[in-house]
Design goal:
Two copies of one chain form a homodimer. The first copy, chain A, is an alpha/beta fold. Chain A folds into three domains: 184 residues, 3-Layer(bba) Sandwich (FAD/NAD(P)-binding domain); 127 residues, FAD/NAD(P)-binding domain (3-Layer(bba) Sandwich), CATH 3.50.50; 111 residues, FAD/NAD(P)-binding domain (3-Layer(bba) Sandwich), CATH 3.50.50. In chain A, strands 3-2-1-7-18 form a five-stranded parallel sheet. In chain A, β4 and β5 form a beta hairpin. In chain A, α1 runs parallel beside α8. At the A-B interface, α8, β21, β22 and α10 of A face α8, β21, β22 and α10 of B.
Chain lengths: 452, 452
């Protein structure tokens, strides 16, 4: 019997996961993975911690080498191979071998697109400076580390106050650099609740990050040697020895467009719950796709490794002949900002209003452990509730300790459409070193009940 | 209009909670609380940490003084008043004033019994030694601290390997004492899974606790001055400067018997889901009652502060004229054993078999954070699953970090009767300092799925 031939495009996260799942699902498949870069399966989410030196060796971020994917997982890996066109009627892709610039056609029974996302550009002059970095690939990580080590920069300017901006601010402060963070809006971390975002600003300032609000970078002023020396904004000019651009990402859909694959309003590929695109035999997963928001039932763009991995398993299993389903995501994210944990699950109060819910919120601050224990710290929980159904729609949890894991508990409540009454009845652990008699989750739910 | 008169018997935890809830529910009640001791509202669960010196001042354990309960909560508090008899047809209780040994009758519209539990006795000679202590009241805590401070004991023998035994072993090791822990069975902490209990033994031994298995204390050999010097067991004789008895507790139902209140098979009072006993106008809550196990639907005896507080709120609200319901508990408990967190939610595999479930278990060990982060530690999750319904019935979680808060997430799954498929689909947070790409909960659920 002829083996089912599965081609996978993209080697960072979703691609290798989908490929591995396909092989595990059906021994009678032959999987080839194409990656334009020279690295596969890289822990890019850990990169800020390698930059900080918290992870002492960048090589630890390599999850699988092409050789190991081949030997241990049975996946044929072709690095420095860029897929440039899909010919859906012929079930072929055209791939450029970047070593010798030849074009080769490969035939598939099933094709999985895991083309990922690319960092947004600033689109101002000077952006090509040799001390200007994104953080979205192994090359970026290695280049930043090399630059810090060889040029010992002392002033960093980070442009963009999202997750990577927060993590890089901490990483570079850990390295002892002066850090200026330039952000378009008044508050960082769009999507979180206003009070959470204000708490983050406090934490940045406490840790000597110079946070410049409502600022738009207009020019990265280069010296003759091609290094940016000044970041010029509408709010002033900032000296820089190193510039980090953390402006978010956008889905890589150039290849998908060659096959006229349907994109959603998010600009990412739109798949069904089996991760199949609208084109026969073509699946997609990861940061190039949108995902169903379980709370609103609508597609959202959520370029997260957790979502990518789960979607990739489903794409891989189905491409191999299985019948897996991906029911979607609630959005469950967290970031460390110096001394605090910040977590979000579900939708924000603004999103909830936009989706037509009658929103009630409640916010409490309480000890994460028994208050008289010496290492007890406070956390804040904000609940976002639909008044009519009493369902929990979203939550922000932030503070010194235990915020992230408590957000996961609330995430389960959101995912399973539990009400505030249900949450107020959670039977939770009380043990002085770990949690108080009334866990902050119970305090928040009991307070919220009074408003409903 | 005449005020509704509510009498509450018992001042440690459930009593004050029920009393306070009654006052909050209905301004037209008059609440009097009777306590045989001279303290109310004491954080006895924190006592091991006061003994250890981790909490530096024992007085911090006093949650409310009688004066504060009176002034801030509007509850009349009578300490050193022991309720000795209930006259249900007359709606009266007979109370002994322990200051002057007089008996007084008090009339109630509603009576709430929160008589709690008492520590089990060893029932061997020498148990009355003046260096032999339980840990179940403020007096116990103060007496232990006083004894340690004045007599500087160097050898401790703890009898009983349950929660308090674990906490006191750590507390006394923290104080620098040699600790011998004498236990009736091969493994400590009955009710946990065998592998959890074995891990606890390892941890005790790593921390130089001498754990004596299958040992039964036969005599506490006193010197002439009334101090126990040797603990004689069937497995040998152990020198002791201080002896701690941690043999568990049994419900205080002497007063309940005077009104012929129905007791369950557990020996504790049996109430309905409104915390009402079988006798008109008499409610009960706390360690003197049993509670419905949500997993099995059957009553269990679970003397925990969390259960007591929630039952007390329901008893207090209903005694004041409300209509609250307590749906029961899953059992959610945790203990710190030196360097590890140990948590249990739901029922054990033995209990599950006894209850007629077709039990499948799965156990995994995984990093609690991203493995390459320098402070990443491992935790183990054991899931106890019903094969037919695929429902999660119980779990043990133990290890270095994040075990307790993850157990709470699994607790929600148990309480809401979620299946392993549901759990494998949890949308959980990935952030290198807090949680890996696949949270240990997801790893455990995905492994378990393969067996179902």
């Amino acid at each position: 019997m002829k083996k089912r031939r599965i081609l996978v495009v993209g080697g960072l996260a979703a691609g290798p996961s989908a490929a591995a799942k396909a092989v595990r699902t059906n021994p009678n498949v032959e999987v080839t993975l194409f990656e334009a870069g020279d690295t596969v399966s890289y822990g890019i989410c850990e990169a800020p911690y390698a930059v900080a030196g918290v992870i002492d060796n960048e090589q630890k971020l390599v999850v699988y080498t092409p050789e190991r994917l081949r030997e241990e997982r049975g996946i044929e890996v072709k690095t420095l191979h860029r897929a440039e066109q899909i010919l859906p009627t012929k079930h072929q892709i055209i791939v450029r071998d970047l070593r010798n610039h030849t074009l080769v056609e490969y035939t598939y029974d099933k094709l999985i697109l895991a083309t990922g996302a690319q960092p947004r550009q600033l689109r101002v002059d000077g952006e090509d400076g040799r001390n200007v970095f994104h953080l979205s690939s192994r090359d970026d990580t290695v280049n930043i580390l090399r630059y810090i080590s060889s040029e010992s920069p002392s002033k960093a300017v980070i442009i963009g106050g999202g997750y990577i901006g927060m993590e890089m601010a901490e990483a570079l402060r850990t390295r002892g650099l002066d850090v200026t963070l330039i952000h378009r809006h008044r508050l960082p971390m769009a999507g979180l609740e206003q009070e959470t975002r204000e708490r983050i600003v406090d934490e940045l300032q406490k840790n000597d990050v110079h946070f410049v609000t409502n600022a738009k970078a207009e020019l990265l002023q280069q010296r003759n040697d091609g290094k940016v020396q000044h970041v010029v904004t509408n709010r002033g000019t900032y000296e820089a020895d190193i510039v980090i651009l953390s402006l978010g990402v956008e889905p890589n859909v150039a290849l998908a467009r060659t096959a006229k694959i349907r994109l959603g309003r998010t600009g990412a590929m739109n798949t069904d719950d089996r991760q199949q695109t609208n084109i026969d035999s073509i699946y997609a997963a990861g940061d190039c796709c949108d995902v169903k928001n379980i709370v609103t039932g609508k597609p959202m763009y959520l370029p997260l490794a957790t979502v990518a991995s789960r979607a990739a398993w489903v794409a891989g299993e189905n491409a191999a002949g299985g019948r897996a389903v991906f029911k979607g995501a609630i959005r469950a994210i967290a970031v460390k900002v110096f001394g605090i944990e910040v977590a979000q699950v579900g939708i924000s109060s603004d999103e909830a209003k936009d989706a037509g819910f009658h929103v009630v919120t409640e916010s409490i601050t309480a000890h994460s452990k028994v208050g008289i224990m010496p290492d007890s710290k406070k956390i804040t929980i904000k609940l976002i509730i639909d008044q009519r159904s009493k369902r929990l729609l979203g939550a922000n949890v932030y503070g010194g300790d235990g915020a992230v894991l408590r957000a996961n508990t609330l995430g389960v409540a959101i995912q399973h459409k539990l009400t505030i009454d249900d949450i107020a009845r959670f039977d939770m652990i009380y043990a002085p070193p770990f949690a108080p008699l009334w866990d902050p989750i119970l305090i928040a739910a009991n307070q919220a009940k009074k408003k409903l």
